[in-house]
């Protein structure tokens, strides 16, 4: 009986030790500062095969004091590892304290504190659009009229009709200005000639009449 009691006690101690060894410890957790695109993140991985729920809290440190609480999440570990992510646009060489609490196994920080890389995540730089080329005076002068889309002004087309008689519109000499104003034309000379002829004929008739009268008086 004593022998059986000793064996049972030894088995219980061995199982207890094995259970304690398989329980969650702070060594099952690791942290890393990484980049997702141009944003910074902090990841915590739990490789506890027992899958004990653990609360992970991340703090930004400055001179050994907590500056701000970045976030808090619950993780269940696995043999392959379970990773949780905290969005944090960290600065180069920044320090973070990661605390793990898994009742009744763990209630302490991951040692040492996490220090971020010396280089920040690369920001995506947008290239400004290239400015449109501006034509120089030499370029604009060398472009033919056909390429610019504008045509040279064409000469006015002839209507096919003879130009109006400009003789009547031209200014008359100074001596004929009064005749032009009264409507007289080139027939004035003809009329004057006829008048002179009539006067001559009339004079001749008068002369012949007077002569005949003198002849009768003498007889």
Automatic annotation (TrEMBL):
Region (Disordered): 121-181
UniProt biased composition (Polar residues): 148-171
PROSITE patterns, alphabetized: PROKAR_LIPOPROTEIN (PS51257)
Transmembrane segments: 190-210
Keyword vocabulary terms for this entry: Membrane, Signal, Transmembrane, Transmembrane helix
Name of the molecule in the record: LAETG motif-containing sortase-dependent surface protein
Record flagged with keyword Signal: yes
Signal peptide start-end: 1-23
